[in-house]
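BUG: 3D viewer hangs when loading the predicted structure for this chain

Environment: internal workstation, default settings.
Expected: structure renders.
Actual: progress bar stalls at 90%.

Input used:
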Amino acid sequence: MSRTCLVVRHLAFEDLGLIEAVLLARGFAIRVVEAGIDDIAALDPLADDVVIVLGGPVGVYEDDVYPFLRDEIAFLRARIEGGRALLGICLGAQLIAAAAGAAVYPGREKEIGWAPVTLTTAGHASPLAVLDGVDVLHWHGDTFDLPDGAVRLASTGITLNQAFAIGNNILGIQFHIEVLPEQIERWLIGHRAELGATRGLSIPALRAETRRVGPAAVAAGAAVIAAALDRAGLK
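Structure tokens produced before the viewer hung:
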């Protein structure tokens, strides 16, 4: 019987990206549920070998206008309490932080573009170690406090909590390690309003930078996912 991965997706073009190939190479069967469409409250939070929660443009604190976020947080809280393998990217990391009891709120400024993160001592000993000196794609406006029991793995000058781990099975990553460079145009189109409202940001420059650093980022991102699966005992 194959291992299973449940993916919670909030936006069609913010998909698994490079993570899909890593999972398929390890024999995972992948099932995608759409937040806000599929009934997450009806899912068994402990059933799958790994759960991956992807990004999206809504805020965790906007559950008054996006009530499905409450079901997601409850699902993730049960997953965390069960100690099962869990990965969150961007909004996914924020949702994990909220499910673990931490506050999520707007950051002091948007962080969009390619830049490296600074790894902590724990980060150098984590699945993120391969990211030392590698440019990664930042694309967020919100941030979060470090949950109790979590260990900070990476920071930037703008965002203190760029990545965290809870034990060996739970990993939250604020930046986007999953993006394939050949798919960046979907992001540039889909997030046009946000990009246009971000002072000093050039879409042509972001596109060119993606071409320049994308291949190295893909190789490093795949290594992070492989190492995270290894650490969670899913070799």
